[in-house]
Amino acid sequence: MNCSSLYRSTVPHLRAAKFLVPTSWTTGAQRRTYAFQAAGAPIHQVFNRRTKWLQKERAAANVEQSRIADFLKDEVAARLCERLLDIKRHYPKVLDIGANSCNIGRALTNPNPEPDPLLPQSGPIASRVGHLTAAESSATLLYRDAELPFNEQINMTREVLADEETIPYEANTFDLVLSSLSLHWINDLPGMLSQINNVLKPDCAFMGAMMGGDSLFELRTSLQLAEQERRGGISPHVSPLADIRDCGGLLQRARFKMVGVDFDDIVVDFPDIFALMQDLQATGENNAVLGREMGPIQRDVLLAADAIYRELHGNADGTIPATFRTIYMIGWKEADNQAQPLPRGSGHINLKDILQSK
Amino acid sequence: MAPPRTRPIQKFAAAVSQCSPEAAVYGKCIVADYNSVHKDKCVNEFMRLKDCYLKASKKA
């Protein structure tokens, strides 16, 4: 209790004792690090994985409809693969986790992934891929396009997983891990990213794209308003989604280095709310939030939601917009000989001079 | 081959599309003050929309 001597005798003893507690913490031999979830703690469950699997199986059973509605997944996969043009490497073993209908496999065989017409044609990225493993839990969806010609242009095997949340591969196996539009259905995203980091070889990259931020905010708000007015309460219809600023932290927590996160918005116009919902269903992206109300949405609510969607968000030409915000992430597994960021304050050129003279 | 089955939601959408004036009135009523929506706030407007939908779905 030597600390109490710091205080004058007028300070009551009780108060001095109060001050002692924090000092003993900070001067103690053990320094506390940042708080994190203890291992073995129960994972917060958000999505019903079995429901999601069923929805994907059902969606893929209708081959024609599901191919038509797949335009968004193909577009995002193409944008994700286009980023590989920036990395001049050869990838002997690549993993596509949560492959859906092998949208990434198809995008890799695109004869010219370079979107800028001024730049020279690059040739398909598949020529730099030794072997692609497409892993997915829904077999029907995974094998939907197994007969299409693009399968012959890439060395690809399909593997059906029991559940995407557990990656069944050895540590240090892959030279690149890709994931397109499936991470937003994972309950334990931090754990999933750690597993991805584990299966990567050192100094190899993970690139992922997932729905996030304000995706489908129009649908979310109009269904909420409709349910509130018609039934006096709301139930979840659109998933809770990760925000862009969460993703950097998540990647760093999974021990990824040189993390980069960016996003883009794809706005798709639909004739009405029902067409949007049918497309979501045909891609297996329907609601699988735990604690949602079972059974279909009431017709009264649907009728109201369509009217509200049109009034609140509708375009002048009578169509309705749906925003899909895709978050693209890249992170590198740590290695000894990896390029490191320079220490703070080691720069010699003032950025202000360069930017102002431009 | 049998013609492709029309899903109930498609019939529903077709009937709803014939009621855009009523839908606009209902939508305006909600959007006018969407921060304080409560149950049956626009019940009259909704019933007019629903009547129109029911008539349209009978015609089809």
Automatic annotation (TrEMBL), chain A:
Key words, A-Z: Methyltransferase, Transferase
GO molecular function: S-adenosylmethionine-dependent methyltransferase activity
GO CC annotation: mitochondrion
Annotated SUPFAM superfamilies: S-adenosyl-L-methionine-dependent methyltransferases
Coiled-coil annotated residue ranges, if any: none
One biological process term in Gene Ontology: mitochondrial respiratory chain complex I assembly
InterPro entries: Malonyl-ACP_OMT (IPR050602), Methyltransf_11 (IPR013216), SAM-dependent_MTases_sf (IPR029063)
Domain Methyltransferase type: 126-204
Keyword Transferase included in the entry's annotation: yes
Protein name per UniProt: S-adenosyl-L-methionine-dependent methyltransferase
Origin organism lineage: Eukaryota, Fungi, Dikarya, Ascomycota, Pezizomycotina
From TrEMBL, chain B:
Domain of life: Eukaryota
GO cellular component entries: mitochondrion
Record GO biological process: mitochondrial respiratory chain complex I assembly
Name of the featured protein: IMS import disulfide relay-system CHCH-CHCH-like Cx9C domain-containing protein
Source organism of the structure: Pseudomassariella vexata
